[in-house]
Amino acid sequence: MYAALWRILPGPLWVRILLVLILLAAVLYSLATWVFPWVNTIVDNQEVTVGSP
Amino acid sequence: MTEPAPSEVPAQRGRRAQRASAARARRRVSVVGVLGELLMTGGVLVLLFLAWQLWWNDAVMAASQSRAAESISQGWTADVAPDPDPAPVTEEGYGDPVVATAPGNADAFAVLYVPRFGADYQRTIAQGTGTDVLNSAALGIGHYPSTQMPGEVGNFAIASHRSANGGGMHLIHELQLGDAIYVQTADGYYTYRFRDFEYVPPSAVEAIAPVPHDPEATPVDRLITLTTCNPLLSTAERIIAYGVFESWQPTSAGAPAELAAMMPAG
Q: B65 and B138 in contact (C-beta within 8 Å)?
């Protein structure tokens, strides 16, 4: 899967490495901006109270 | 002489063919290979989420909750000119504390200061213990609506996260006997002193009764109760910190000395 991705990338080695880093940064940014905040609303982590509030 | 060695050409062809077939084999995407890569990606994503939740987002929310609390506090003090001739201070201080009426759900009504949690620690207390308060970037600490208000005879019980979402009670286990717990409202400053810890199951609603663990009793003391999860990073138990009311002073009298040193000027 990732090997196929690496082959699809054009250009010489340094261009490919640059593209991979850019893709990685884009993925991390979208995770932190959209995906993780959404997951945080689903994960039940607010059990800090006693009894049923 | 120029005659090629009969075995050489086929051998080269063989090697080339081997290399080509090896390349084809690498190119072939196997189901197991893709599955393995997906599973590893999933694992990395889970770890990334945990790191984001416990460190990155926690720090971002802690900073934003602290800023929000500071601005609320300044709103209360800015309106009140310091009284040059404050009410005569008796030996009992400023008399019985003012008790505000209970606010609406998710309404901010107090700011919590705990010097043991850090000199810059401040958090907004809002009504209710739902996610709209606890997971809010502006609030962070929830008041159990069924419990009393600051300064009231009984139990002023609040809850907050221990880790993630700003971690309002991250350092609760560091409290020591006699540590100050300040609550500021629009009316003034309520000083409580930390008394003791309790470790209870999540069902122990009696910990926030007006007289803890004796729901039928008539309260005479003014308590503050902090509840959060225990152990750290787990929700198996709750850690309870009790504080006892010490004194009250109106906004015009200024903050208690220790707190005044903590609060940013202006």
A: yes
